[in-house]
Amino acid sequence: MGAARLVGAAVPAVSPLLVAILLGILVGNLASLPAGWGPGLGAGSKTLLRTGIVLLGLQVSLATIADLGWKVVLAVVLVVAVGLATAVLAGRLLGVRPGLALLVGAGFSICGAAAVAAADGVVDAEDEDVAVALALVVLFGTLMIPAVPLLGGLLGLDDRTIGLWAGLSVHEVAQVVAVGGIVGGAALAVAVVAKLARVVLLAPVMVGFATLRRRQLRAGEGAAGGTAGGSNDVTLPPIVPAFVVAFLAMVLVRTWVPLPEQLLEVVKVLQTLLLAAAMWALGTGVRWERLRTVGGAPFALAGITTAVVAAVGLGGALVA
């Protein structure tokens, strides 16, 4: 996925993951891939994805997050919790598929494309739902890049507060960096650390999603068993997925073990390549004709979730 990294480097607000899935969609719709590639791409994308998520843990140090103070940590938890709840409730009111609503909630409240991809491995979502969620992440996250500095200036906020607001509310890490770069001063450092604090919550949220999925499968199993000829052979996903355990282990390693900066940079590049490759493989299975039937409800859901996350993030930044 060298092309994705080149474009991402040229335009800092664009995530290589988003570029990769767009390239995958183009290839899947404009080129004729061998029919036998489908199962292999699907299985390979999950392996690459989960490995990339595990390596993402090495970018997060609990000690650095703790330095922000308990008020910021509490604000991070509130942003994620309220963002997820908003996406689920608004999704029901708007008639959005539950899987897509969960993907939007994860992407908008935690860490953008990586959270969408991680959630896709746990919840029951269509490939098109993933593509739509990623498109919404890049669209609304990009709108936040000029909006946060502009509104912060109009509100008379200092650089640190604007940076903290960005870290608490902007969707993608790359977009947070873009906001911090625009504001300058102390904004960039605090924005990135606050954003990484949201990344840590990827683990408990995925556990919650897995628990929800188990309940859904058990309910379906009971319904099937209660009908003539019904089958109750259902494989339940683990409550704590293995990649989540490994992700947390990497966070602890980064927190307690001194690691050379050169090693961390190499791991960061490898992590991006793995996630981008997984996104490309996923994109090849998405079809234009199905994306065109999405309608306006997901956009309304994204707008509502963005507004709520931004409002909660601003409140947290002002209090902290």
Automatic annotation (TrEMBL):
A GO-annotated cellular component: plasma membrane
Domain of life per record: Bacteria
UniProt topology in membrane: Multi-pass membrane protein
Location of the protein in the cell: Cell membrane
KW Cell wall biogenesis/degradation (keyword) present: no
Membrane-crossing segments per the record: 6-27, 72-93, 100-119, 131-157, 164-190, 234-257, 269-286, 298-319
Database matches in Pfam families: Cons_hypoth698 (PF03601)
Protein family per UniProt: Belongs to the UPF0324 family.
Alphabetical keyword list: Cell membrane, Membrane, Transmembrane, Transmembrane helix
Name this polypeptide is given: Putative sulfate exporter family transporter
